[in-house]
Amino acid sequence: MMSDSRLPNFSALRAFEAAARHENFSRAADELHLTHGAISHQVRALERELGLALFERHGKQVRITAAGAQYARQLAKAFADMAAASAALRRSAVHQRLTIAAVPAFAARWLAPRLGGFIERHPAINVVLQTGEQWLADGVDVAIRRADGAYSGWLVEPLMVEMGDLVVSPHYHDGSKGYLMLLPAVAEQRPQVQAFRDWLQEEVTLSQRLSAAQASD
């Protein structure tokens, strides 16, 4: 007989609790993906450890004893408590992880140097920085992108304004704005920058109007 301080085999406890709940070894076997014989063996082993019968057996029929029914209720509560505690830990682990997605250049030059201070202030948070293209994938908490518009399911907040200069060869610096013929190709390479496309359209339109006015003169 086992000592009072030692717990019975956990698999035997699971087998007994399922058998007691169903009052049927075959259904317990189906639930736990075991054979009928395995359930019967586990229950008998538990009975030997405890030193008393948990089921009354009448041929192929089994009926739980009063002591077995009380034990099964206590085990069911213990299993439910363990499941709840495990679920709480899983939720806590998810909440302590912060996944940030950003384009590689921004992540390396601006974001990464500033993450140290955040991690120092919040040591319990595991910060994960992703620089791939799958920034809308499940598991991403914050995405920092150069983009316009709204994204379904995301709260979009402006972070900063990007400033840029147009640099052209001195060959085109003659006041004619002949470099404008090159800009559509540049815009195709940066289609996500709406402000650049808007500026380009305004410049092209203005240039066309000036050319038309000069031609009419």
Question: How do you describe this structure in short?
Answer:
With 217 residues, this protein is mostly helical. It is built from seven helices and five strands.
Q: Features of this protein?
A:
217 residues, Arc Repressor Mutant, subunit A, 3 domains, 5 strands, DNA-binding, LysR_subst-bd, LysR family transcriptional regulator
Can you characterise this structure?
- This protein has 3 domains: 10-93, Winged helix-like DNA-binding domain superfamily/Winged helix DNA-binding domain (Arc Repressor Mutant, subunit A), CATH 1.10.10.10; 96-144, Periplasmic binding protein-like II (D-Maltodextrin-Binding Protein, domain 2); 170-216.
- It contains 7 helices and 5 strands.
- The chain has helices at 10-22, 25-32, 36-50, 66-95, 104-121, 183-189, 194-216, and strands at residues 55-58, 61-64, 97-102, 126-130, 142-144.
- The strands form 2 sheets. A 3-stranded parallel sheet has the order 4-3-5. A two-stranded antiparallel sheet has the order 1-2.
- A hairpin with a 2-residue loop joins strand 1 and strand 2 (61-64).
- Helix 1 packs across helix 4 (66-95).
- The termini are far apart.
- The mean pLDDT is 79.
Shape: elongated
Q: How big a fraction of the residues is strand?
A: 5-15%
CATH superfamily of the largest domain: Winged helix-like DNA-binding domain superfamily/Winged helix DNA-binding domain
- CATH hierarchy class name of the largest domain: Mainly Alpha
Total tally of structural domains: 3
CATH architecture of the largest domain: Orthogonal Bundle
Q: State the helicity in percent bands.
A: 40-55%
Radius of gyration, in angstroms, nearest whole number: 35 Å
Uncertain residue ranges: none
Series of secondary-structure elements, N-terminal to C-terminal? HHHEEHEHEEHH
Mean pLDDT: 79
Number of strands: 5
> What is the CATH fold-level name of the largest domain?
Arc Repressor Mutant, subunit A
Structural class: mainly alpha
Q: Report, as a whole number of angstroms, the end-to-end distance.
A: 113 Å
Major β-sheet, in short? Answer: 3 strands, parallel
Strand order of the largest sheet: 4-3-5
Query: Helix segment count?
Result: 7
